[in-house]
């Protein structure tokens, strides 16, 4: 008992500490999900811009927002910059996806180590074999209009 108490200082001492650590891990996972979603939307916007200006004359004027300032450039100048930005965003998304997978693995190990089970809203305890990826997220919504 004395060896356990003094040996590993990283171990949480009670259920509340385990729950707090688990909650923080889940919050971090959700932050990664939301950042990936935000960046994917930016990539989509960049793709739309590239698709819109690519077929145009390279000497044509266009406007670009840089740091809150609208600047006038030519398509020849703007197109490569937008493409580089898009590639950079895609690289960041791939790194975030790697971090997401690592965090999922860490959470799964933490759940297994402390035998954490998520309770469903109706009071049932979810079996580990029935878990589905992302099942703790989202809201189930019925039809938009019901004629009853």
Automatic annotation (TrEMBL):
Record GO terms (molecular function): unfolded protein binding
Keywords in alphabetical order: Chaperone, Coiled coil
Annotated protein name in UniProt: Prefoldin subunit 2
One Pfam match: Prefoldin_2
Chain intervals for the UniProt region annotation (Disordered): 123-148
GO terms for cellular component: prefoldin complex
SUPFAM superfamilies: Prefoldin (SSF46579)
Species name: Vitis rotundifolia
Lineage, highest ranks first: Eukaryota, Viridiplantae, Streptophyta, Embryophyta, Tracheophyta
Family of the protein in this entry: Belongs to the prefoldin subunit beta family.
